[in-house]
Design a protein that fits this description.
Length: 180
Amino acid sequence: MATREVLLLNSDYEPLNVCNIRRALSLILLGKVDVVESSELPIRTTGGELQPPSIVKMRYHVRRPMPQLKLSRHSVLARDNYTCQYCGLKGKDLTIDHVIPRWMGGPQTWDNLVACCRKCNLKKGDKTPQQARMKLLSTPRRPHFIPYISLPAYLKAVDNEDWAFYLPVFEAFAKKEAHG
């Protein structure tokens, strides 16, 4: 039951967080949130079936500081769409590579860190991409937005059709529509 996720909105419909179903149900029972949309997949309980929430909204406004985009392993992987920036391999088993190695003064910044598969990381070693004769698929940059929720949670959330209306659209992560 705890694996289902619920989008939590502030009273002004601004995304606050993604929480598990247990947390959302407890907020409902405590009278802190209203259900905006329910999931189509019912939960079976001893008392029968329950329509679980998909989106809940706070009954009062939660004041919070302006969110900061944190540089972390998970946010770099999410920015790079869990894709090796050298060979294009997709997957969750990726490492983080310093484009300019640390020993050469390469900083721990958005512009110097990329997602990298283990094979490419071993091949590149402590060299620059030019020295290793490797080419980056895209230039690493700091994302140009401040997310309401963490970048990995945002990228997971935009895949949920029910939630899309409530999430801001960031061009760098907009779905590429197939033209045919």
